[in-house]
Design brief:
Elements: E1 5-9, E2 15-19, E3 22-26, E4 31-34, E5 41-42, E6 48-51, E7 54-57, H1 61-72
Parallel strand pairs: 1-7
Antiparallel strand pairs: 1-4, 2-3, 2-5, 6-7
């Protein structure tokens, strides 16, 4: 039985995971294959899509959410200033 797994990066930055206890860096937009399957692979939490023997590593969900929030909210409208204890009226 063939356990070959292909991992493809759709990320804009490099992605590091562990294989046999060693760090392996998958460059942005690159593809690698692992001959003996996932038994010795550890993926950090990320968004991924699995199609048969192909694993597609996507950009992080939190990173995408933060980027979308930056586009929705203009920082100048939401500036918060700290008040000193003396500035607060009782």
């Amino acid at each position: 039985m063939d356990h070959k797994i292909t991992i493809r990066s759709d990320r804009q930055d490099d992605y590091t995971f562990q294989y046999r206890g060693e760090d392996v860096t998958l460059k942005a937009g690159s593809i690698i294959s692992i001959a003996n399957g996932l038994s010795e692979v550890v993926f950090p939490t990320c968004v991924m899509k699995i199609i048969n023997n192909l694993i597609v590593i996507k950009d992080d969900a939190i990173k995408n959410i933060l980027e979308k929030k930056k586009k929705l909210f203009k920082p100048s409208k939401y500036i918060v200033t700290a008040l000193k204890k003396d500035d607060v009226k009782k």
